[in-house]
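go over my protein:
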Amino acid sequence: MLVVATRLFEDTLRLEVNRAKSSVKPAGSAEFLGYGFYFAKGSQVKLRMAPATRKRVKNRIRQLTSCRWSISMEERLARLNEYMRGWMGYFRLVDTPRVFQKLDEWFRHRLQQVRWKEWKRRKTRVRILRSWGRFSFRQAARA
């Protein structure tokens, strides 16, 4: 199949084919520029984010939300916003909203961990949570 496609591109269309990078695959297993493909109802092919891309995104967010990286929260959020804006703009065509919801939950949890680590002392944690109305005296006794 690859030989036929290569001959078509090179002979008929006069395009150069890089044989090391080129392949012919079914749509369900193909990945291209960070996108993957899947079949929806009615044999319609839709876009998804490739699993390797999801891992790269999570690793980058891990770097940006590392508790060991001591920068201000404003600077951290500015860098995260810059990265997420570009990433979301590139993958806005994806047809799998649940993946984005899961990543969003995980992302928010990472930011909560950073903030919790910033409040080093128990008194600080209790004071701030009380000011937000999220901490009662009963919970303070268990903390």
